[in-house]
Design brief:
- The chain has 170 residues and is mostly helical.
- Helix content is 51%, strand content 5%.
């Protein structure tokens, strides 16, 4: 007795494609360059926090108590404020952070247009900082975000949400 498979359990039939850069004008930044830029940006923020900890009584690395699911709102807000203070100008003017500028890559829209500061801070970076409030959620977000760079389009989750790509500077 042969029966047809139940269509409710069939795999989705939608076709999903990665971004394709038209005409070869924009060259997607390499994964290594993007990782290097992120590491440079991290070191810059850590250096700022270290300098603040040396000259003030505030220690950004002090444990505030609570369990794994305890909200970390002050830390997330401090991190986002530091990020905007350090990278806001370059993001607004050139679509770059310090690390991206040093490695000669920049953030743009898929058509090559400049991404607005609101798009960059709100969608591309802000959502990640919202997840940073809950530590376990932050770790899941970070893993999913980072792993998606291995698609052909080299777009992380934050790139897809903000509709941005990272390209080599011309």
């Amino acid at each position: 007795m042969h029966t047809e498979p139940d269509p409710r359990f069939a795999p989705p039939g939608a076709r999903v494609e990665d971004v394709e850069v038209e005409g070869g004008e924009l060259q997607l930044a390499g994964r290594g360059a993007r990782l290097g830029a992120a590491l440079i940006d991290l070191l810059v923020v850590l250096a700022l926090f270290g300098a603040i900890a040396l000259v003030t009584p505030w220690n950004p690395w002090a444990r505030t108590g609570g369990g794994v699911w305890s909200p970390r709102l002050p830390q997330a807000l401090a991190g986002f404020a530091a990020f905007v203070l350090i990278h806001g100008y370059l993001l607004a003017k050139r679509g770059q952070t310090i690390g991206k500028a040093l490695l000669k890559i920049r953030i743009t829209r898929p058509d090559g247009a400049r991404a607005s500061l609101g798009r960059l801070l709100g969608l591309r970076y802000g959502i990640g900082y919202l997840f940073a409030i809950v530590p376990v959620a932050a770790q899941v977000w970070s893993l999913a975000d980072a792993l998606l760079i291995f698609r052909q389009s080299r777009r992380c989750l934050h790139d897809s949400i903000a509709d941005t790509i990272v390209v080599n500077n011309r």
